[in-house]
Amino acid sequence: MIERIVDRDAEAFAGLYDRTAPYVFGLLLRMLGQREAAEEVAQEVYMTVWRNAAAYDATRGTPATWIGLISRSRAVDRLRSERSYAGAVVRAAKAATSAAKELHVMPDAPLSPAEALEISERRRRVRAALKELPSEQRRLVELAFFGGLSHSEIARATETPLGTVKSRIRAGIGKLEKILTPTHDQRAGTAGTGLE
Amino acid sequence: MDGERFRDLAIEHLLQGLQGDALREFRAEMERRGAEGERELARLREVMGSLALAAPPVDPPEALRARLVAQIEAEASEKPLTAEGPPSGGAGAGDRDVTPIRPEWGRWGVAAAGLAAALAFVFGLGNVELRNQAAVMQASLDSAWTALALAEGEAAAAADSLRRSLEGAEAALGIAGSRGASSVMLSGTEVQPFAWARAFIDPVTGRTLLLIHDLPVLPPDTVYQLWAIRGDTPTPAGTLTVGPAGSGRLESEDADLWLGANVLAVTVEPAPGRSAPTGPIVLAGSL
Question: At what angle do helices B35-51 and A135-145 cross, to 10 degrees?
């Protein structure tokens, strides 16, 4: 599909958009929190895919990975351009930390049948892998990935020593890598977003 | 450099967190490690890319697809593609010339662009192959009609949003004027870092108003649910949804609900709400 986009096949592009847009938009919405901003950034993401399809290197990851990282990258650019962002995240992280001590939440509620039908096998594996992480590792990985915070910013926001932040994120990513590795080995058969 | 240090730097690099000396150190180490370093980086990149799938999928607006298709069909008839910018999700992938369409005037901009394309065609200003031009024009017009319909819808939504805001402000004013009334700020958690809310509580009458902002519209089978928390015990305090602008309000009159409560929190729950929280916290604040 990427090769056809390199050849400027608009139909192939539309097909790729239809298969990936809900994932890209969902990611952007989670990171940016506003539909208008997510829509703007999604437009940037897909124009990057269209214009830079020739730069895609299959040896460096799957198309879904490529598009996912472009999406995150654009969202982080947007977040960092908003001056109040760091302060807002710090406040939110502190509020969440104190609230979590008070409220016993079960965030890992089972998926609904409708959702289970919609989501890909790969997405289920990622979510399952995240759930297997100790809560502190998962929280820091999510702050880094979805919050777009640097290790230092996370350390300040969570009032955790920088070394601890680094070691927990490293350990979390390492565990995710181990859990997800079989999927990568079976790349050709990845259900994923149907891009492969 | 040991393995742990390299992985820390590689992870931060992929998360766009490396700058200055650390970035130079990482690049030098990558050069030293050669193919082995590239393989390690590729593995980490795959994990990071997979994380992007962890967010719940959400259907984007139809207008986005229409805009993109119109734009790429226009470009498809121009020069062939060449690789530019770094591949595989690094920072700065060479698309800085993409001009985002601002929501406040974007619809009208698309409509104007569609009209311009149509006029250019009608008056013979196009100098490319006729069939391609017709296809581009049709896509532009389709996009323009979609944009116009959306603009009309957005105007109605904006009026509705303003009406809700005024009603909320009026109700808040009613509570704020009471003796002993207090307000509580709720901040978005990492799930919704930009969300915020304010609760106004009249402890005498128990009248409470919660105004929430910048939360996404939920699927029909889910709601936002407010909890009054005493110590370790959360008590359900009502459910609400948000409009297209991301705002919503909840009013209640239950004086007992707030006795001894020290934390307010909002979670996402299956409709019509639960007796105990099961979903992620999106807002929290201390009384």
Answer: 100
Cα distance between the two ends of chain B: 49
Q: How far lies B238's CA from each of A109, B214, B224, B266, in Å?
A: 21, 19, 9, 10
Collect all residues of chain A within an 8 Å Cβ-Cβ radius of residue B16.
73, 76, 148
Phi, psi of A124 (to 5 degrees): -60, -40
What is the count of residue pairs from A and B with beta carbons less than 8 Å apart? 326
Tens of pLDDT, residues B202-220 = 877 778 888 888 888 888 8
Q: Do B16 and A52 touch (CB under 8 A)?
A: no
> What are the strands of the beta sheet with B196-201, ordered from one edge?
B233-240, B222-230, B263-270, B281-286, B182-188, B196-201, B207-213, B248-253
Give dist(CA B96, CA B140) in Å, integer.
Answer: 23
Boundaries of every domain in chain A = 1-82, 84-191
Topology annotation, domain A84-191: Arc Repressor Mutant, subunit A (1.10.10)
CATH architecture label of A1-82 = Orthogonal Bundle (1.10)
Q: Which two tokens stand for residue B89?
A: 């999700």
Instruction: Tell me whether residue B94 is exposed, middle or buried, using C-beta atoms within 10 angstroms of its C-beta: 0 to 12, 13 to 18, 19 or more.
Output: middle
Rounded to the nearest integer, the mean pLDDT of chain B is 73
Q: Which residue of B has its CA nearest to A78?
A: B100
Nearest residue in B to A63, CA atom:
B88
Rounded to whole angstroms, what are the CA distances from A2 to A17, A56, A122, B173? 11, 8, 20, 57
Nearest CA in chain A to B10: A170
Q: Report pLDDT digits (tens) over B141-160.
A: 444 554 455 555 556 666 66
